[in-house]
């Protein structure tokens, strides 16, 4: 709904909302383990903490945030130490987090993030159309490795294989499925490496 407002008040007035580099309001869809999930229209530049705690009421009662997935299934994870990050295009990019469509999913401390990654890997493996071999093989290998770890049959080399596989297909894929499928897994590997290492 930005265009009617711009036409009514002009671009200069519109640019007073948000920040200089990220003007205007943005819709954020907050879901997951949050008291008041929903669609929030806020000016660019507010902090993630303000959106989550002040507007959405915080994480569900008795729990704390373990992670937040920015950008949907093909996004990247944020940790509690990033709650004071400003929600702007430039600040999120500097933190390695995609703005995407504004989707943010909250996970509390009871959630198994390796299982979250497994479900995402399965989704992308099933969605790969098969035209690009790197995507077809890469997404399937991610799913296989994560499935093996979930079954307690992980191998010592799985962590390295998962990281190598995840780096392989983004540059060799024609569409967003192959280009983005590895982002959440690579992000989780950076934040919680021990989750992906065989016992």
Automatic annotation (TrEMBL):
Pfam families the UniProt entry points to: NADH_4Fe-4S (PF10589)
Nucleotidyltransferase in keyword set: no
Keyword Metal-binding appears in the UniProt entry: yes
Domain NADH-ubiquinone oxidoreductase 51kDa subunit iron-sulphur binding: 114-159
Keywords attached to this entry: Iron, Iron-sulfur, Metal-binding
One function term, GO molecular function aspect: 4 iron, 4 sulfur cluster binding
Listed name of the protein: NADH-quinone oxidoreductase subunit E
Natural source organism: Anaerolinea thermolimosa
């Amino acid at each position: 709904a930005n265009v009617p407002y711009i036409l009514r008040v002009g671009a200069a007035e519109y640019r007073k909302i948000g920040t200089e580099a990220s003007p205007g309001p943005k819709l954020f869809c907050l879901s997951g383990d949050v008291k008041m999930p929903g669609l929030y229209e806020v000016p660019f530049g507010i902090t993630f903490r303000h959106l989550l705690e002040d507007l959405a009421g915080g994480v569900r009662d008795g729990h704390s945030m373990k992670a937040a997935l920015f950008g949907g299934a093909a996004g990247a994870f944020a940790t509690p130490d990033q709650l004071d990050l400003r929600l702007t295009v430039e600040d999120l990019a500097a933190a390695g987090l995609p703005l995407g469509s504004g989707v943010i999913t909250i996970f509390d401390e009871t959630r198994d993030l390796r299982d979250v990654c497994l479900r995402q890997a399965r989704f992308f493996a099933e969605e790969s159309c098969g035209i690009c071999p790197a995507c077809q093989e890469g997404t399937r290998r991610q799913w296989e490795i994560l499935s093996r770890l979930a079954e307690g049959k992980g191998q010592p080399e799985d962590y390295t294989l998962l990281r190598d596989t995840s780096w392989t297909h983004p540059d060799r894929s024609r569409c967003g499925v192959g280009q983005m499928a590895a982002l959440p897994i690579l992000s989780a590997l950076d934040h919680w490496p021990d989750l992906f290492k065989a016992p």
